[in-house]
Structure formats: structure tokens, C-alpha cells
Write a structure and sequence with these properties.
The chain has helices spanning 3-11, 89-100, 124-140, 146-161, 168-175, 215-234, 248-254, 260-284, 288-304, 311-321, 349-364; strands spanning 17-28, 38-54, 59-64, 69-74, 108-114, 180-185, 191-195, 201-211, 326-331, 337-345, 369-373, 380-383. By secondary structure, it is α+β, with helices and mostly antiparallel strands. The structure holds adenosine-5'-diphosphate and magnesium ion (MG).
């Protein structure tokens, strides 16, 4: 599709900049972010693109190609949610957060286009926020750091849209680099970009295409159980602010004080943090056997201890593990649906795709979706004229 032509047709004006921001998938480190722990996402090739031009007045006009709808608002009034076009709330949230920071952007026309599957756990929402933040920055010549853009985008989702997500999605969408995985400390926000051996391996994302509605309550329950674990372990071990601070030995010596479910949740988080750190070493050593074991252990732990997998995710992981050339596989994201990933030897990804497309529908009655992606480049802006 010719986006520039579409822009001119809709807005009767030529776009001046193009902003883009990718979706993401988490390689390892699940349910660790809100425990002040470690995660390791990559940016993926699926992305949101925004073409934009400035306006002389104080109006922002948005048009989403995907939704085939427009929505507009004035920057002179408090920005409100649009109940008729809820897709626009992410962009509205970004403008609102700029204003809250005392930065007054000019009006703009914006065309939003994207191919990040919506609601699949690949964070199309963070990609929309980050692309919007980038577009506003570019149009207004603002001097904002990566971390400013990340926090602004996260605030748009937390405070304006009202989804209480962590910082990982916006962070990787902004900071991702081609060929690299992001090792992120969710407490200090220190990070390291670790080369992913893209010459030898690729990441296959397998979408269950199921999304269970109970995720919200289950998620809050898990968070509560982690907090209870911190409280109870904190009576035995000094200096524990979050599960991130609990050493495995201290956990093993004191786990008898924990109710069974709390113990299971804590064990997952504490060991998952250790797995992320071990995965950094395995990536650096290009040790595929170790990478595979860590991925598979992560899945078992999410399934049996954290209890956030589901039949469809387990089926995808089982199918993947039986394919030659698959290094390891696990569910990714919050769980109860969404996607699983597999790290696969290059050249074998088509074998995996074929196996999933054949077996998964037989076992579930659902046609899955498959996306193949090496670590992609994070957000950026480009001038069009
Ligand atoms: P995800 O797991 O993909 O982040 P969310 O429910 O958090 O799912 O966010 C999805 C929302 O992001 C959509 O409902 C829509 O508002 C916005 N969005 C995603 N892709 C696009 C797009 N191409 N154009 C406009 N808005 C989009
Ligand atoms: Mg989202």
C-alpha cells in the first residue's frame, strides 16, 4: 500500500515525517517485571508506522488505516477519551502526556498504519504509543531522551488508557537494536544489548489465537501472591523489597513459611530471574543447548508453578519441541493464550511452520498464525522531504 498517497487523499496535504516503532516478544523472563526483576525482549519486524505533517491550528487529526476510521481533537481543551474510536486513545494519551509535562506540541495530521497483530501479546499498543511519541517529537523538533519517550509512552497507557502495564514494552520498542536482545533490569532500568546469533538462529512466534478473559483477575491474584511471598520471606531474611532480592538458597531455607501456592509463585519468579541471567551467558557463548534448556525450563515453570499456561500454549510448545532444529520453546507474555516462541536453527523454521500449521488445528480446531522474526531495530523518525 502506498501510504504517502493515502495520506494525501485523506488529509489533502503531504506528509513531512515518518515515525515507526516495532512490536516485541519476550525471549525469557516472564512475570518478573513487576517483581523488580529481569526480562529479555527483542523488537520484531511487525511495526506501527505513522506519517505526519504539522498543522497551523491546534487540531490533531488521526486516521487509522487498519480501523478505516478517523478521530480528531483540539489541543486547546483537556484531551478526553474517544468512546466511539477507542483505538485513538493511545495517540490521545501520548498528546495528553506531552501536555502534562508542559510541552505544548502544535497541531498535526497523522496516518497510522501497522501490522502488529492486535491483542496477541506482541504489544501493538506500546508500538502505537512509541510511534506517536516519536512523531510528535519529530514534528516539533523536541529534544527528548529515549528514557523520556519510554516513560511518556508508558504513562499514556497507564494513566490515560488505564492499562497498568510495566515498562518493558515501551522500552524495547524504543531501544531495540537489529540483531540484539535487550537484557533489562526492571528495577534500575540498566540495560545491555546482547548480540543474538542471527546468522545461525531465528525466532519463530506462534500465535494460539486464543485469549482468555480471566487474565485480569488471575494477573492480580499472582501479583498479590508475590507480594505475600515478599512479606513472609522478609520476616526471615533481611533486606527483601521484592522477589528480585531473594537468593535461591535463602528461598530454599525458608520456603516452609509460605502457603503452597505462594511458594510455587515465588519459586517461579526467583528461578526465572536466575534463568534470564543464565540466558545472557548462553547467548554470549552461543551455547544453544543451554539456551534451549533455559527456555524449556521457563515454560515448565510457568505451566506448573506459576500456572499461567493453557492447553493451546502447551500444545504449541510440544509441537515445536518435536521438530528437528528447534533449540527450545516456551509460552511468552502474560499467559492463558497469546503466543509461544521457539528459537530455531536457521533453515528449519519452515519445518516448524509446517508442523504447527498441520498439527495445531487437528488438536484444537483453531488455525494458528506464525511470524518469523530476528531481533529488529527499535523506533525511529525519518524526514520525508
Ligand atoms: P496488544 O497486546 O497488541 O498490545 P492491546 O489491547 O494492549 O493489545 O492494544 C491493542 C490496541 O492498540 C488496539 O485496540 C488499538 O487501539 C491499538 N492499535 C494496535 N494496532 C493499531 C493500528 N494498526 N492502528 C491503530 N491502532 C492500533
Ligand atoms: Mg498492549
Amino acid at each position: 500500500m502506498n501510504l504517502e498517497k493515502t495520506f494525501i487523499e485523506i488529509f489533502k496535504n503531504a506528509p513531512e515525517i515518518k515515525a515507526r516503532a516495532p512490536g516485541r516478544v519476550n525471549l525469557i523472563g516472564e512475570h518478573t517485571d513487576y517483581n523488580d526483576g529481569f526480562v529479555m525482549p527483542i523488537a520484531i519486524h511487525h511495526e506501527i508506522v505513522i506519517l505526519a505533517c504539522p498543522r497551523r491550528d491546534r487540531l490533531v487529526r488521526l486516521h487509522s488505516v487498519g480501523f478505516g476510521q478517523s478521530s480528531s481533537f483540539s489541543l486547546d481543551k483537556p484531551i478526553e477519551k474517544d468512546p466511539v474510536h477507542p483505538w485513538s486513545n493511545y495517540e490521545r494519551g501520548v498528546f495528553s502526556e506531552y501536555l502534562k509535562r508542559g510541552i505544548v506540541p502544535g497541531g498535526a495530521d497523522m496516518l497510522i498504519y501497522g501490522n502488529v497483530p492486535v491483542g496477541a501479546g506482541l504489544s501493538s499498543s506500546a508500538a502505537v504509543e512509541m510511534a506517536t511519541s516519536q512523531a510528535v517529537k519529530g514534528l516539533n523538533g523536541l529534544d527528548l531522551s529515549g528514557i523520556d519517550m519510554i516513560k511518556l509512552s508508558q504513562d499514556a497507557e497507564n494513566k490515560f488508557v488505564g492499562m497498568n502495564c510495566g515498562i518493558m514494552d515501551q522500552f524495547i520498542s524504543c531501544m531495540g537494536e537489529k540483531g540484539k536482545a535487550l537484557f533489562l533490569d526492571c528495577r534500575s532500568l540498566e540495560y545491555e544489548l546482547i548480540p543474538f546469533p542471527s546468522d545461525t538462529y531465528t525466532v519463530v512466534i506462534m500465535n494460539t489465537r486464543v485469549k482468555r478473559e480471566l487474565t485480569g483477575t488471575e494477573y492480580n491474584e499472582r501479583r498479590g501472591q508475590c507480594e505475600e511471598g515478599v512479606r513472609l520471606l522478609g520476616r526471615k531474611v533481611r533486606g527483601i523489597q521484592a522477589l528480585r532480592d531473594v537468593e535461591i538458597n535463602d528461598f530454599n531455607m525458608n520456603k516452609a513459611v509460605l502457603p503452597e501456592k505462594v511458594r510455587m509463585r515465588c519459586e517461579h519468579v526467583i528461578k526465572e530471574n536466575a534463568r534470564v541471567k543464565a540466558f545472557v551467558g548462553a547467548l554470549k557463548d552461543r551455547d544453544s543447548e543451554r539456551m534451549g534448556l533455559l527456555l524449556t525450563d521457563s515454560h515448565k515453570s510457568l505451566r506448573d508453578l506459576y500456572e499461567v499456561s493453557c492447553r493451546e500454549l502447551d500444545i504449541l510448545v510440544d509441537i515445536a519441541m518435536a521438530v528437528k532444529g528447534v533449540v527450545g520453546a516456551r509460552m511468552t507474555g502474560a499467559g492463558f493464550g497469546g503466543c509461544a516462541i521457539a528459537v530455531v536453527e536457521k533453515g528449519r523454521e519452515k519445518d516448524l511452520e509446517e508442523a504447527v500449521l498441520k498439527i495445531y488445528p487437528e488438536q484444537t480446531g483453531i488455525i494458528p498464525e506464525i511470524y518469523i522474526s530476528e531481533p529488529a531495530q527499535g523506533a525511529g523518525i525519518e524526514k520525508l522531504k
